[in-house]
Amino acid sequence: xxxxxxxxxxxxxxVQNDFxxxxxxxxxxxxxxxxxxxxVKDKFDLIVATQDWHPANHGSFAAxxxxxxxxxxxxxNGLDQILWPVHCVExxxxxxxxxxxxxxxxxxxxxxxxNPVVDSYSGFFDNGRKEKTGLxxxxxxxxIENVFVTGLAADYCVKFTVLDALDLGFNTYLIADATKGVNxxxxxxxxxxxxxxxxxxxxxxxxxx
Length: 209
Hints:
This protein has four helices and eight strands; from the N terminus they run E-H-E-E-E-E-H-E-H-E-H-E.
């Protein structure tokens, strides 16, 4: 398919050290998305990224709840919350974008997850959908109609970014070979792909762009 540069944007979700092999919340083979993203970015004039940016006292960290373990669920500010390892703490090396990721010509970076009492998987909103990151308004102000989503992780932050993009009225494409999942359960990524397609996302491969 031909990308219309005038009304299309590439969204790079959370390709940060803590989500890559060796990181605190590593996605299996997550580093394999980097060369794919670097290759497709030249198809776009408008490129944005999201960045997990947590305070050390974030409520989604198991370490901040006595007696709780990673993978357990709690209620956080009225929302169901999976507890994660400490990751992507603001101003840490783990929160940095991977050095192999080509950041040339990025227009904006939208930080998320800074509020300690609510997590933020989506690049557009927190999980309670009460606070906006500004990404949606930025894309609309720049005349964007089509968004192409890449990054980590397919079954969490990428999925919720895709679903919110659809909800906001964008024609939404997932570059399927430019994302990998956490897979707390073995089929989580496959189920996420199905859910995104069911809601209206179009799955494409990088080679088709």
